[in-house]
Amino acid sequence: MKTDQKIMAIASGGGHWVQLMRLRPAFEEMNVFYVSMDKSAAVDVPGQRYYTIRDASRKQKWGFFVVMLQLFRILLTERPKVVITTGSAPALIALILAKHLFSAKTIWVDSIANAERLSTSGKTAGRFADIWLTQWPQLAKSDDGTRHPEYWGAVL
Amino acid sequence: MIFVTIGSMFPFDRLIQVMDAWALANPRQDVLAQIGNGTYAPKHMKFVRRLSQTEFGATVAGATLIVSHAGMGTVITAGRAGRPMVLLPRLQEWGEHTTDHQIATANWLGGKPGIHVAATDADLPAAIVAAFSEQDTGSRIAPVADPAFTDRLRTAIRGFNNSVKVTVQ
User: Fold this and answer.
1) Do A17 and B102 touch (CB under 8 A)?
2) For every residue of B91-138, which 3-state class applies, written as one string?
3) In the 8-state DSSP scheme, what is residue B77?
4) Residues B89-93: what's their mean pLDDT?
5) What is the maximal distance between C-alpha atoms in chain A?
6) With contacts defined as CB-CB under 8 Å, which chain A residues touch B7?
7) pTM for this structure?
8) Distances (CA, A) of B27 to A64, B2, B30, B46
9) Which among B55, B71, B145 is the nearest to A15, CB-wise?
10) Is it true that the peptide bond before A88 is cis, omega within 30 degrees of 0?
11) Is this complex's ipTM strictly greater than 0.90?
């Protein structure tokens, strides 16, 4: 079913992208566009809009600023109503910008690599994500009174 | 072909050094290492710095054994191709990653079909021997996540779309 409500599916290269690809049945027939870092990842989403951003970790302040500008430009062009991501830090920036500047609904799926605790970005994402997920049931328990992500399943 | 890979992010010189020593002790022409921004350049195996996502997938598919960090991109790609793997987890204490989550990943995956974990450098040769005994793991993981998970996400996304439409009206 095609809908006019655009979906942005974004993930860093490597494992984050591989996990996002495993979630494609959730959105691939909708009006979706993709964002990652490696130009060659476009072959994974043939015939669909694919944007690249720079690879920058949170330690590189200048690189991170460039990534923010790139993301802002993509958001301005596409104006997605929903953002879904499997991480990492640059995707968190996208999620926050989309939420605050474009009122998008946001979904954070923390990487399956984080079996014992959420990633740093994943913890922060809890403040911004409309749906906040871990792929590990033991991280979804909320018996200590603090807010925890939900567990809906895993990519493996 | 044996494919040694550090994944897509940080360098992992320890893996490359240990595998270079292994390649010296077990001479063969078909060992390829992908070393990223590492400072150690191997002398006894061929190496590349980076591979595109496409080249990476093709190299994994063409390998008989993958020796890598305990990263999910490599694990899922090798699992899709049914290739046996040896995993050496990155350690935070040696600056190999920002946290010790790869130890948890290795503990979780070790013993699953085709996956052999080397907890330390010294365990690597034995893990390689064990992994070589299964050239094809015979178990290929499905191309996508469990439908129960993606269906629930899909329903939630549709719900967002519908609620957006309602507010517009």
Assistant:
1) no
2) CCCCCCCCCCHHHHHHHHHCCCCCEEECCCHHHHHHHHHHHHCCCCCC
3) H
4) 97
5) 47
6) 14-15
7) 0.94
8) 43, 12, 9, 12
9) B71
10) yes
11) yes
**How far apart are the C-alpha atoms of B14 and A41, rounded to whole Å?**
28
Residue found by looking up tokens 């309602």 in the block:
B166
Cα angle: A34, vertex A37, A43; to 5 degrees: 60
Nearest to B35, CA basis, from B25, B20, B23: B20
Residue where the block lists tokens 């062009």: A77
The amino acid present at B70, given as its one-letter code, is A
Most A CBs within 10 A among B8, B52, B155, B162, hence the mutation to make, goes to B8
- Pull the structure tokens for residue A3: 């809908």
Mean pLDDT score across all residues of chain B: 92
pLDDT category, B135, cuts 50, 70, 90? low
The Cα B169–Cα B162 span in angstroms is: 11
- State the amino acid at position A144 in one-letter form: D
Q: How far apart are the C-alpha atoms of B163 and A124, rounded to whole Å?
A: 25
Alpha carbon distance B14, B40 (integer Å): 9
Q: Hey, is A108 helix, strand or coil?
A: strand
Structure tokens, A11: 């993930």
Q: B73–A115: do the CB atoms touch at under 8 Å?
A: no
Distance CA A117, CA A122 (A): 9
What is the nearest CA distance from B27 to chain A, expressed in angstroms?
Answer: 30
Q: Rounded to an integer, what distance in angstroms lies between the CA atom of residue A107 and that of residue A128?
A: 9
For B9-50, the pLDDT digits (tens) are 899 999 999 999 999 999 999 999 999 999 999 999 999 999
Chain B contact set for A115 (CB, 8 A):
101, 104-105, 108
What is residue A45's predicted lDDT score, i.e. its pLDDT?
A: 96
- Determine, for residues B73 and A152 on separate chains, whether the beta-carbon distance falls below 8 Å: no
